[in-house]
Amino acid sequence: MKLKLHNSLTRRIEEFTPQNPERVTMYLCGPTVYNYVHIGNARPAVVFDLLARLLRRQYPQVVYARNITDVDDKINIAATEQGVPIGTITAKFAQAYREDMAALGVAPPDIEPHATEHIPQMIAMCERLIADGHAYAAENHVLFSVDSYPAYGQLSGRSTEDMIAGARVEVAPYKKSPGDFVLWKPSTLDLPGWDSPWGRGRPGWHIECSAMCEAHLGDTIDIHAGGIDLQFPHHENEIAQSTCAHGGKIFAKYWLHNGMLNMDGRKMSKSLGNVLQLHELLKLHPPELLRFLLLRAQYRQPADWSESALKQARATLDGWYGALRDLLDVPVDPRDEVVPTDFEAALCDDLNTPEAFAILSRLVDDTRKAATPEQRTSAKAKLLGAAHLLGLLTLHLDPQAWFQQNAAGDESDVAQIEQLVAARQSAKQAKDFALADSLRAQLLALGVVVEDSAQGPRWKRVSIDELA
Ligand SMILES: Nc1ncnc2c1ncn2[C@@H]1O[C@H](COP(=O)(O)OP(=O)(O)OP(=O)(O)O)[C@@H](O)[C@H]1O
Ligand SMILES: [Zn+2]
């Protein structure tokens, strides 16, 4: 099935044609690891995880790299404040990032390059750029000369004046032109640094990604992805460096950018302070609910984080898991799951997840309408095939667990609840309604409601405001 993607470079939806169908390459700018990430930072990881899943269905080998930025001034500040080496901070938060992504069902990338492990490649790239007249050394810095690359600004479609104003670039005496940006900068002894032809120093952020792409994926990659906030200056600068370091070869054929996750109409960002840490949210909500919310809007559109969106998502997933619970008697082998054609077509249309979610809801309805055993099996196979491609309905073998996990996905009090439910059932059978009612009240106090179904009592957790 033909995959179509919006390419920020041409500002058009294009058919995806890899350079080499035997080896598709994709790079995503990963996190700068000095703190727990916020839920906005998880949007690119989840969205491009979905793209990787789609690509893997179509191509025999997809090499997906998502880097870790483990040298950066923000990390240095955090390390100084806490009085520890940067490695202590970066190791801790890189690991936290991996764990949080795994909780969201994001598959680990094929390659996870760390910036600090590619310093020689960065230095070599700087030397090549200097030799070819695209960069110059000045006062222990190396700067990229934007005037040496006439196509500079093509990705963001900005004029040089806009770019300089927008980036609030530092006017430094050693710059030949105000738009020139840093490839390498000097480090004082209290800062992390590496020996280089320009003295002890450290890389600028942009050269890190260019060097890691080159080292692992080659001079030209198929897809480069990241948040729209990185389009300028980060991606513009990556293009300038890589293209000039590779004799004009195109750096990335397709540039994909996700829209921002907003809170109260503004980008969720550490600098604005309106962030919800994913690490904390995972203690409050089932991870699948968060994945659902991050995929619900089409990836290029801005998305809003709100309590009402959370509630709606929960209700939808309750409905889907309710349908699966009614199909417990229908076993479906994972190899028999089917991804319906219209569902895959929606995703292949520039990851049209709103359409894919609408189809999923129809597939849920189809399971309810299915009458014969064959129809029920076929409807369940399609529902699971579709949902699993999105990384949803992962609790399909035990749908009741969806209703019984408490907010944090913790099931530690289940035994106690089941005892109360069983005691209430015995009381009802013994027609001791006073006792049954008091047990129901005890369960309510634990945030649990009991429904009497044909298969016996079923319980689920509800939130305080649902009870009100
Ligand atoms: N609110 C957001 N919504 C969606 N993606 C975001 C958001 N904020 C950052 N990103 C993306 O998260 C990824 C990791 O970025 P990085 O670690 O550099 O975060 P950051 O830019 O420092 O975050 P912040 O803007 O909060 O300071 C990038 O691809 C970036 O585009
Ligand atoms: Zn990058």
**Total tally of structural domains:** 3
- What small molecules does this complex bind? adenosine-5'-triphosphate, zinc ion
Which fold name corresponds to the CATH topology of the largest domain?
Answer: Rossmann fold
Q: What is the number of helical segments per DSSP (H or I, 4+ residues)?
A: 17
Lateral arrangement of strands in the main beta sheet: 4-3-9-10
Radius of gyration: 26 Å
Q: How does the major sheet shape up?
A: 4 strands, parallel
Low-pLDDT residue intervals, each spanning 5 or more residues: none
Q: What is the 3D form?
A: elongated
* CATH homologous superfamily placement of the largest domain: HUPs
Strand percent estimate: 5-15%
Oligomer: single chain
CATH C-level category of the largest domain? Alpha Beta
Structural class: alpha/beta
Output the keywords.
protein biosynthesis, binds adenosine-5'-triphosphate, alpha/beta, binds zinc ion, four-stranded parallel sheet, Four Helix Bundle (Hemerythrin (Met), subunit A), 468 residues, aminoacyl-trna synthetase, Rossmann fold, 17 helices, 3 domains, four-stranded antiparallel sheet, 15% strand, elongated
Word description of this protein:
The protein has 468 residues and is an alpha/beta fold. The chain folds into three domains: 4-258, HUPs (Rossmann fold), CATH 3.40.50.620; 285-293 and 302-396, Up-down Bundle (Four Helix Bundle (Hemerythrin (Met), subunit A)), CATH 1.20.120.640; 414-467, no CATH class. 46% of the residues lie in helices and 15% in strands. It is built from 17 helices and 15 strands. It has a four-stranded parallel beta sheet, sandwiched between helices. A four-stranded antiparallel beta sheet has the order 5-6-7-8. Helix 1 (39-58) packs across helix 9 (287-296). The longest helix has 20 residues, at 39-58. It is elongated and about 90 Å long. The model has no long low-confidence stretch (mean pLDDT 94). Adenosine-5'-triphosphate binds at residues 29, 31-32, 40-41, 43-44, 226-227, 229-230, 258, 260-261, 267-271. InterPro entries: Cys-tRNA-ligase, Cys-tRNA-synt_Ia_DALR, Cys-tRNA/MSH_ligase, CysS_C, Rossmann-like_a/b/a_fold, tRNA-synt_1_cat_dom, tRNAsynth_Ia_anticodon-bd. One of its GO terms (biological process) is cysteinyl-tRNA aminoacylation. GO terms for molecular function: ATP binding; cysteine-tRNA ligase activity; zinc ion binding. It catalyses: tRNA(Cys) + L-cysteine + ATP = L-cysteinyl-tRNA(Cys) + AMP + diphosphate. It is an enzyme of class 6 (ligase).
